[in-house]
Amino acid sequence: MSFDKFPFLGGFRELEYGSPDGPSIRAAARMAAPGYEGDLVRYLRAGTALVATPSAVPDVLSETGAFIGGLHLLTDGHWLWYSDLAHYVGRYHVELDPAFIEHARSKDWTVPQVSDERLEAMVTLLIGDEGELD
User: Fold this and answer.
1) Which structural domain range is residue 37 located in?
2) Core-most of 1, 6, 50, 68, by most CB within 10 Å?
3) Could you give the 3-state DSSP secondary structure of residue 130?
4) How many domains does the chain divide into?
5) How would you label 106-117 residue by residue, b for 16+ Cβ within 10 Å and e otherwise?
6) Which of these, 4, 10, 1, 6, lies nearest to 68 by C-alpha position?
7) What pLDDT, on the 0 to 100 scale, is given for residue 55?
8) Is residue 3 assigned to a domain?
9) Would you say residue 51 lies in a domain?
10) Is residue 105 a part of any domain in this protein?
């Protein structure tokens, strides 16, 4: 999949899907939660599934590597992120891209409804076929 057509959130190098030259999730973890964290976690969990996978993902910050859940690619029609990101934000207060936080805040922490047409166009672009977004 090509993620260069949409802003991608959470490409931490320690994660299976992360970028080798991406930021460290360990360095992004914070001791305390920001005041908006609950809203942010709800926003991340409310994303529309773009791609669902049967992959089970471990918690890379846990000493035991505990199972988090299945891995799904989510979107709000603009940004992309994987479903395990909400876990890391909620449990370890992982700091995310300020542009995404401002984007979610500007939506009043509510993921907009994404049309089927938009989802189909996004999938087409992600898998490499030519496609047009409105």
Assistant:
1) 8-123
2) 50
3) coil
4) 1
5) eeeeebeebeee
6) 10
7) 85
8) no
9) yes
10) yes
Q: How many CB atoms lie within 10 A of CB 129?
A: 8
Query: 40 to each of 4, 19, 35, 37, 97, how far by Cα in Å?
Result: 24, 23, 10, 5, 12
Residue 134 lies in a domain: no
The amino acid at residue 134 is: D
8 A C-beta contact, residue 53 and residue 71: yes
Q: Give pLDDT, residue 57.
A: 92
pLDDT digits (tens, 9 = 90+) for 20-74: 999 999 999 999 999 999 999 999 999 999 998 888 899 999 999 899 989 999 9
- For 80-97, the pLDDT digits (tens) are 999 999 999 999 999 999
Report yes or no: 124 and 132 within 8 Å, Cβ to Cβ: no
Q: pTM score > 0.85 for this model? A: yes
